[in-house]
Amino acid sequence: MIDNIKRIKEEATGRITSAPDVEELERLRVHYLGKKGLLTSLLHQLKSLTPEQRKEMGAVLNEVKTEFETTITARQQQLDDQRINQEIEKSPMLDVTLPGQFVSEPGSIHPVTRVTEEVIEHLKRVGFSLASGPEIELDAYNFEALNMPAHHPARDMQDTFYVGGPVLLRTHTSPVQIRTMKNRKPPLQIISHGKVYRSDYDQTHTPMFHQMEGLMVDENISLADLKGVVNHLVKALFGSKPVRFRPSYFPFTEPSAEIDVHFGNLGWLEIGGCGMVHPKVFEAVGYDYEKYSGFAFGLGIERIAMLKYGITDLRSFFENDLRMLEQF
Ligand code: DAH
């Protein structure tokens, strides 16, 4: 029996250590150690031996069994390592020390943001700083204090979204003038920008768009200061183009003008409104209009972006079509 065991052991060790794959290894495990395996049947044969021999053989068989198990586990580990190495070799480009792949499309700045930031930059250079106010606004600030009492016909110029009662979506950035003046004393030189809302929708109107407001108040501010600032801004935005102040009407300024810029064969195009702050507005915020004067202007951001970048449909700013946005 001992010879038989020796022979089986040699044969098995050879076959296990050279098993070509895990399937073969499993077959060998069953062959030697399985319920009907060789070692198991030898263990069964112990019954026919004398107690002395049984003890001796039993010990030998158990030792061999443990050895087989160890050899099988070792081979299993070897085969696993081989498979992993082969997989790594099959993908020769994998170098884990290389930096990760870059996202090739990092996104771009929306033209509205671009123009906003540009205008802020140019106006900061001549002394303006930022102020802000809410998009959900009071009638009192959006209209009343800006010299547009209830039933004033100028309210028709701005189709308003009413939230309810005295609350509405601001139709322009001008209420920020009121909020700022109510909280601060002159001298004052502020810009505010943001979303404004009007019930209107076609190729040149969207229910939400962006405005930029400028306000400067001090003693002895004149129309010349207004023209100086506007000319500086237009030149910084569009280069040396003719600028025209076309007489117009706004309830909150007197005199008032539209700002037109001449774009070659497109002719004169309006970019915003402006004027000298109306005494009624100063009165509403408690400023002494005998002592102080000021100018204000309001610009359409999309309007400027359309002219700067040759965009023809206002709605394309808000459709988020990547083919359009990727150009910026
Ligand atoms: N708030 C005006 C509008 O939305 C634009 C405007 C005109 C603002 C003249 C001003 C201004 O500050 O002085 O149509």
3D structure, described in words:
The protein folds into two domains: 2-90; 111-325, 2-Layer Sandwich (BirA Bifunctional Protein, domain 2). The protein has helices at 2-17, 22-33, 38-45, 51-90, 111-124, 139-142, 175-183, 223-238, 279-285, 301-309, 322-325, and strands spanning 129-130, 136-138, 162-164, 167-169, 188-197, 208-218, 243-250, 253-263, 267-277, 293-300. The strands form two sheets. Strands 1-5-6-10-9-8-7 form a seven-stranded mixed sheet, with helices on both faces. It is 42% helix and 21% strand. The structure holds 3,4-dihydroxyphenylalanine. 3,4-dihydroxyphenylalanine (DAH) binds at residues 172, 174, 213, 250, 253, 273-275, 296-298.
Question: Keywords, please?
Answer:
328 residues, seven-stranded mixed sheet, three-stranded antiparallel sheet, 2 domains, BirA Bifunctional Protein, domain 2, binds 3,4-dihydroxyphenylalanine, 10 strands, alpha+beta, 42% helix
Distance between the termini: 87 Å
Number of strands: 10
| Quaternary assembly | single chain
Order of helices and strands: HHHHHEEHEEHEEHEEEHEHH
What fraction, in percent, of the residue positions are helical? 40-55%
Shape: rod-shaped
Query: Structurally, how many domains make up the residues?
Result: 2
Helical stretch tally: 11
Low-confidence spans:
none
What is this structure's SSE topology?
Blueprint: H1 2-17, H2 22-33, H3 38-45, H4 51-90, H5 111-124, E1 129-130, E2 136-138, H6 139-142, E3 162-164, E4 167-169, H7 175-183, E5 188-197, E6 208-218, H8 223-238, E7 243-250, E8 253-263, E9 267-277, H9 279-285, E10 293-300, H10 301-309, H11 322-325
Helix pairs in contact: 1-4, 2-4, 5-8, 5-10, 7-9
The structure holds 3,4-dihydroxyphenylalanine.
